Amino acid sequence: MLQVLGTKLGLTSVSVLKHANEICRKMESGPNVISLSFLRLSQSCKCVIALDLAANKFGCHLKESDKSMAIKLSGLNKKAYLNSFKTVESLLGEQQKSSIRELCVQFGCTDIADVAQETLNRYQSAMVKNGCADIDFKSTLFLAAAVEAACLKYKYKIDRLKLRETCSVKKAVFLRLVEQLVKYAEEIKSEEKVVVQKKHRNFIEEIDAKSREFEPTSKKALIETEEPALNYEEWKRKILATATRAESEN
Fold first, then answer.
1. Are residues 76 and 14 in the same domain?
2. Which of 20, 83, 97, 146 is deepest in the core (most CB within 10 A)?
């Protein structure tokens, strides 16, 4: 059944099918059987969820069209499917341990990883202050949206459709979140410009000060302050004469 359903979803990789089979085995036996039984999932639904989870693990995230097909094959409506998917994912420990840096590596934009992370951090702080502390800001949705926002402000070209598909959410939801995050990415970019301008100005001022410090003194001042070099032989003669005179007096 896995192979048939996998073909319909465009998942034919041996690694994906093998891991999906392992997930199905865990759903049928093990400590979570009783908990999963309350979901009352059909065998085909379990297989679809297993394939979906396996695809995520190996980076073969289902496209929107394939996701719709998966929901249809599961026999559930969208809300029920997503809830069941999240429950199985949590109980079996199949959550994706992703990060902004990993996404940036995947999409070839590692230079803006720190900006994307700071963008998300500022957004999270603002949301927490507004009483939204229970949101999972580490979910792929927020990570991908932060990367998208940073790429937009810093003009990085990436496969934005593929990035959005990693979240498995509607386009409107993703873009709405990106729009909110862009404000913080813009804030960071503006701050960087100020720092660069200050550094440039300080450098110029330092050069100017150094040039003034080493400005040539007027010839007259040099003549007035210059002490004539002391002739060594004259100095030696005076010292010996003084010593001889002191000795004769004694």
1. yes
2. 146
248 falls within a domain: no
Closest C-alpha among 137, 142, 125, 128 to residue 187: 125
The type of residue at 120 is: L
Range of the domain at 23: 1-92
d(C-alpha 160, C-alpha 154), whole Å: 14
Residue 159, in any domain of the structure: yes
Q: What is the pTM of this model?
A: 0.47
Question: Which pLDDT tens digits describe the chain residue by residue (250 residues)?
Answer: 888 998 998 888 899 999 999 988 888 886 677 777 878 889 999 999 999 988 888 877 788 888 899 999 999 999 898 888 888 876 777 766 678 998 899 899 999 999 999 999 999 999 888 887 767 788 788 899 999 999 999 988 899 888 887 776 778 888 999 999 999 999 998 887 655 455 444 555 555 555 555 455 444 444 444 444 456 567 666 666 666 665 565 5
User: Do 89 and 44 meet the contact criterion of CB atoms below 8 Å apart?
Assistant: no
My answer on whether 51 and 8 are in the same domain is: yes
Residue 214 lies in a domain: no
Tokens 């690694």 found at: 15
Please answer whether residues 109 and 83 qualify as being in contact, where contact means their C-beta atoms are separated by less than 8 angstroms: no
Q: 3-state secondary structure string, 11-42?
A: CCCHHHHHHHHHHHHHHHCCCCHHHHHCCCCC
Of 9, 10, 15, 41, which Cα lies nearest the Cα of 28?
A: 41
